[in-house]
Amino acid sequence: MPAYNIADIAMALGADAVGDLSIVITAAAEPSMAGPADLALAMDPKYASDLAEGGAQAALLWPDADWRSMGLKAAIFTPRGRIAMAGLSVLLDHGPQIAAGIDPMTHIHPSARIGMGAHIGPFVSIGADVQIGAGARIASHVSIGVGTCIGDNALILQGAHLGARLVIGDRFICQAGAVVGADGFSFVTADKSGVEEIRQTLGHRDDLRAQSWVRIHSLGSVKIGDDVELGANVAIDRGTVRDTVIGSGTKLDNLVHVGHNVEIGRDCLLCGQVGIAGSARLGDRVVLAGQCGVNDNIFVGDDVIAGGGTKIFTNAPAGRVLLGYPAVKMATQIELNKATRRLPRLFAQVQNLQETVTKLLDKQFR
After folding, report:
1. Does the active-site annotation cover 260?
2. In sequence order, which residues have a C-beta less than 8 Å from that of residue 303 and are 6 or more positions away?
3. Domains in the chain, CATH or no CATH each
4. Which stretches of 189-248 are assigned E, i.e. beta strand?
5. For the segment 181-193, what is each residue's pLDDT rounded down to a tens digit?
6. Catalytic residue among 119, 161, 257, 260
């Protein structure tokens, strides 16, 4: 179990600390649940009252907090709490328990090359001509396909499946159950399909006819930059001809689906259940909240932010903040929501007016 004193933690965070700096910390906790060996996370004044419910000796606090009045023996001050939490989480993370070396129940093709310092668990399958950089940590039941190249310091967790000919950068983190490099969802009919017809007419169909789907195989692969993290059960399809691309620094939450030929820029953040349809392109620093959807063959510009459940059907210019189905400017959608809530009252007012007018007309023509 990691253990650090207050002085060590403050130095690692680049933060100021006061009080008894020798107190040893083994975990972080919410203020009301913190014990003597926990660092209470109370980075905002609204959490100050919760400290009295717990038993913490030390806390992570906002600047200039009156730590003595809170009954603490030590405090670390941080102007930006969540950044401090990020650093603290690195210190206190136990990490996956993967023994050093290569488990004897793992199969590695003789032509594969594994870098120094590998930790590879049981029942891993590593195919021909695979290259894995130094410091890899690979948990059980992972499979890595032929010709895939992975950079240094990768962490690949249980049951992840990485397909053939992938190119993945350094410090790759892949959570359990992710699948990278599955075939794209590409099918065509011998004659123009109903889907193609509807795309052109937006609803009209001349006739209905039996059609069968012919599979288009995926000849491309997937390229992933440095410092990319994939959540549990992420699915990234290989390209049809050109590669699917994920830019450096991009983070994908659980259950995100990236279709074939998609290009995602640097430092994007895609939250749970986001779906990106084939051949869409996302710029840099795009943030898509949970359950957002992006239509195929469109472009979402740099620094776009989309609220939860937004469906983007057309190109989105750089810097736009979007919300709704279909996506519009967030301010516009908020006004639409307000107007929708007012509709019942408006209908009642109109009905009252109709009744009043009817009574007046009846009285006039009697």
Report:
1. yes
2. 283, 284, 285, 286, 318, 319
3. 4-92 (3.40.1390.10)
4. 214-215, 222-224, 229-230, 235-237, 244-246
5. 999 999 999 888 8
6. 260
